[in-house]
TrEMBL record:
It comes from the Bacteria. Residues 14-270 form the Iminophenyl-pyruvate dimer synthase domain. It holds the Pfam family Ferritin-like. It comes from Chitinimonas viridis. InterPro entries: Ferritin-like (IPR012347), VioB/RebD_dom (IPR026820). This is Ferritin-like domain-containing protein.
Length: 422
């Protein structure tokens, strides 16, 4: 059995791993939502076809990384839970941007910025492969791989008997955590829609163009029941981010060599973005502010900003609560609530915000701030979410279906009977 000292170290560093992922998810999502994946004003440009194709590709690759960061967060949560710890997610995102990653070497800061060459350079620093001979480090590390290899060294000191909470974890279920979704797929040529359609096989045109940036064999959500499971989960996180350390290109991260690493995806986009002028990029990138805050927005927009932050925080609260449950209660809370909330609520709110102009001198649009929202009480959190939605004026263009979808979310105030109520 683990010593108290080893248990404390693993609990501490696995929680840090969770918070590293919680730092990257909003940063990547912010840049994703700044991209107009189907631009309307590129047809007349000499390079309009290439620009439109780049926009869709950049969006697909960014979302493919964000999806895997959510997977990494959940894998770290599963390891922590398997050892008897309780993952903390609610209100654990960075308090302000720009931010350094937890326990990263000082001097690096990345923030909420629209797509740009500079932002892609920052993303490459986040996912940078380990330098040859770099030691495992729990603090002051240069690459995430160094930090995760330190966790592997701690896991090597455990025994299979230490992993006694297999049923209180999250796992791939009913298609959730599929490697790809509609937002990660992109076409080889964005103008494929102008090609003639086969009336006998109408899906052929799109199927032949579809690029799937994530591959099912590169790593998946798994329950942790032994030391081997835990180490395999950590290795999947490392490889998806930086690629194989014995491959100088750090391109591939899966045995079938069908998926490229996060670092390589960002490196490819960084090289490609140089092909376009600032004027070109303005047609595919929304004029998002840099590191926006609630306090910095005009008062008329605050109801929508508050709702977005509250939904974002509620989804992590759902996930955290799910780790204290199992069986049908866990299914209702996470597999139904978290995924419905992310796809049908948060995505629609964030996607709609960017059409609200701030009417400032820079001509910027409203963008999410990804700030933690502190509910007054878990007993009233869902009702607070409903009230925030009702407070958004029609002038802010909130999707009319959002209120009903919020009402359909499970309530995090799970009673002593263990039943999740909606």
């Amino acid at each position: 059995m683990m010593s108290p000292e080893l248990r404390k170290a693993l609990y501490t560093h696995l929680q840090t791993a969770i918070e590293i992922e919680l730092s990257t998810i909003p940063i990547y999502l912010y840049t994703y939502y700044s991209i107009q994946r189907q631009p309307q004003d590129t047809d007349s440009l000499p390079n309009g076809r290439a620009l439109a194709t780049f926009a869709n590709k950049a969006g697909g690759l960014l979302m493919s990384v964000a999806v895997e960061e959510m997977l990494h967060m959940s894998l770290s949560c599963n390891i922590l839970r398997s050892l008897g710890g309780e993952p903390k997610l609610y209100c654990r995102s960075p308090g302000a941007y720009p931010t350094n990653l937890p326990h990263h070497k000082a001097g690096f800061a990345v923030g909420l910025e629209p797509l740009s060459a500079h932002q892609l350079d920052q993303f490459k620093v986040i996912e940078v492969p380990e330098a040859e001979g770099a030691p495992p480090q729990s603090d002051n590390w240069d690459s995430i791989g160094q930090f995760y290899r330190y966790i592997v060294e701690l896991l090597d000191q455990t025994s299979d008997e230490d992993y006694g909470h297999g049923d209180e974890q999250l796992a791939a279920h009913r298609g959730y955590y599929s490697p790809n979704n509609v937002d990660t797929v992109y076409p080889k040529d964005a103008y494929y829609i102008q090609q003639p359609e086969d009336p006998f096989n109408p899906v052929k045109r799109g199927a032949e163009q579809a690029q799937y940036p994530n591959n099912k064999d590169s790593g998946h959500l798994r329950r942790i029941r032994c030391k081997h499971d835990a180490k395999m989960a950590i290795h999947a996180i490392m490889l998806q981010g930086e690629g194989y350390t014995n491959d100088p290109s750090h391109k591939r991260d899966d045995p079938e060599r069908n998926e490229v690493s996060h670092w390589y995806k960002y490196d490819a986009l960084r090289q490609e973005i140089n092909s376009f002028s600032a004027s070109d990029l303005s047609l595919i990138i929304q004029p998002f502010p840099v590191n926006p805050t609630r306090a910095g927005y005009p008062a008329p927009f605050l109801p929508l900003v508050d709702l977005a932050n509250a939904v974002y925080s509620y989804l992590f609260l759902l996930t955290e609560t799910a780790y204290r449950l199992d069986g049908e209660a866990q299914e209702s809370l996470f597999y139904v609530g978290m995924h419905k909330g992310m796809i049908f609520i948060l995505d629609k709110i964030l996607g709609g915000m960017r059409y609200q102009y701030l009417n400032n001198q820079a001509g910027q649009v409203l963008a999410p701030t990804f700030e933690n929202y502190q509910f007054n009480s878990l007993a009233t959190a869902k009702q607070e979410l409903i009230d925030l939605c009702l407070a958004v004026p029609a002038s802010l263009g909130l999707d009319s279906n959002i209120l009903g979808r919020i009402r359909d979310l499970p309530d995090v105030n799970v009673g002593p009977d263990g039943i999740v109520r909606f």
